[in-house]
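Hi, here's the filled form for the chain we discussed.

Project: internal
Contact: R.S.
Residues: 134
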Amino acid sequence: EPLTQTGAASKKMTEEFKLALPRSCPLPQVNAGRAYMQMNESEHAVACFRAALEMDPTCAAGLLDLGQLSLKRGETSSALSYFDSAIESSRSFPEMHDSMTCKRVALAHKRALDTLQSSSSSELTTEPDARGMA
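And the returned structure, exactly as it came back:
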């Protein structure tokens, strides 16, 4: 059966991820969550990431992926919280680097949105003449 991004082959592969390592290891859940993210099934992805964190609350990969999913949904504050937790839980430099990079991206995203909202609200309160409309 060919591997595809969507369809039965991917779902079968997702289930196999869950069985790949002992039940005490969160990585099969993280991998399953990532597979669900690629299939745009975010609710299933969240369930897998949360299951990974139930097994190991300091699973940086699960925290990082929940942060990325939160950011994708526009939940910047939640994403930043997950990224901070992932940074604190990192067990290696690459994990920490990924988490810090994602946090920087989320902060830049937040600043851009804040600037956009600020400029939009100031345009709404500016008198028409001040905007070049006489």
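Let me know if anything looks off before we file it.
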